[in-house]
Amino acid sequence: METSVAYDISRFEGEPRQQRIRVVKTGKELKAAADRKFVIELVALTVVLAVLAVYTVYSNMMLTKTKALIEKKNSELVEIQSENVYLDYQIESMVSMKTAEEFAENELGLVRLSPAQIEYVNLENSNKIVEEETETLQLNVSTFLSTVMQFFEN
Fold this sequence. Notes:
Strand content: under 5%
Helix content: 55-70%
Shape: elongated
Number of helices: 3
Largest sheet: none
Radius of gyration: 53 Å
């Protein structure tokens, strides 16, 4: 028994190749394409430069505005610090002992003590603390509750 093994190779063959048409551009067409590419790049570069210029002007404008605001706030700070120093001086002059003594004598009618009016107390033997007996919280609450109960019973 003779067997013949045959392979169908035609299945693996692709479609017959078609002849390709090759287009060759002339020098004028190549130059026109290069010119179009150059114009597009030039327009893109111009747009980028315009955006950068606008951004630079805007940044400088905001910087100038911020500097003006800082100067204004610094001048306000100097003014407020000056007012603070003045008010501190006024407080010190109002709180001085001389001012307090003048107010006590003139407005309140008080008189300075004479040495004869001063009395000294000796506290050497009185280092004891005396605690009074107090009622506890529980006793106070029970007294309150009994009073309330008597009120409602009557």
